Prior knowledge:
With 442 residues, the protein is an alpha/beta fold. It has 18 helices and eleven strands.
Amino acid sequence: xxxxxxxxxxxxxxxxxxxxxxxxxxxxxxxxxxxxxxxxxxxxxxxxxxxxxxxxxxxxxxxxxxxxxxxxxxxxxxxxxxxxxxxxxxxxxxxxxxxxxxxxxxxxxxxxxxxxxxxxxxxxxxxxxxxxxxxxxxxxxxxxxxxxxxxxxxxxxxxxxxxxxxxxxxxxxxxxxxxxxxxxxxxxxxxxxxxxxxxxxxxxxxxxxxxxxxxxxxxxxxxxxxxxxxxxxxxxxxxxxxxxxxxxxxxxxxxxxxxxxxxxxxxxxxxxxxxxxxxxxxxxxxxxxxxxxxxxxxxxxxxxxxxxxxxxxxxxxxxxxxxxxxxxxxxxxxxxxxxxxxxxxxxxxxxxxxxxxxxxxxxxxxxxxxxxxxxxxxxxxxxxxxxxxxxxxxxxxxxxxxxxxxxxxxxxxxxxxxxxxxxxxxxxxxxxxxxxxxxxxx
Length: 442
């Protein structure tokens, strides 16, 4: 692992406390459609106090729950909700957890200020990820009705999935209770716009997610506001790049009116495997749109986000080959890669696979890395991601808290995709025979 990252963890973070992470202060993910928040994509989300944001909209970020977690980190106590990082670090001193990457984006001065300051300070976080609403043309297998209108329609039409694990609750609702403000004034969105004059002056990065952000009226309101105000922060947009040509062209046109705009899109495998897991996707069209945006827009950088799940591993090296072709053509400063590990639902985590399949896939991935790790367009950050991926596929054996019964996870995995195929007229038979032999075994 990268010695500089280990040095950073030991000298910058652990000298404060062994549990300190700058993300609890400096980063916020806001799901305004459901009124929930988290400090990064790893801990479970929690509710925002609707009464508190009426008093001060900054409580969208500095919730009572986050303040408790900050205090624990200041005292060196490891919050259980951050177990993903603790599991990585427990693998050995040479392993780098996400808290290092998430803290490193902030200055040492900021980290010192947060660690020594009051945990309940109502700060403007330098980085925010925000979701306004859930319109989406995809229904990816590991998403759910809280974040996708297409998923909501599936549940409304076909009913709940019959599953038994703790994490299966995501497939037993249509998202309506959590999207109660869908057809009326949303108090969380109202609070955000009230916070905007202060927020826009303190931000470094505002990242917009969804749903599919390019289908949201609120997102286009934000884009137009940024064109008018020309703020100093980076505006980052997520997109599945599966929307209409008209919308893609509109984004390209608007990009020339913004000085600092970046784009994030998602993919982790190719062809029929990608189309199976990301229901609604036309993989060929996605590739065309990636190239169109890179070649015709004023977008400074595109990052492809990989969500490592059970079904992406069988053609993951083919996908990585495609990414390297693009990186060779457009350069590492124009196109980047981010590797993330699916934790919820646990029954779609790679830990559900039997050891013989895990070993085969791990060996293939390791062989690919040995051939390509010296590629000149792979960044230091991506090297760290790749090495964590190799270790995760090989080493991590159990799911995370609440869903660590592997027998239940295996049953839910198989039952989920049998129901998925029936509802969506898809077939898991697109995957390799050696996987299907395990999948079809009672």
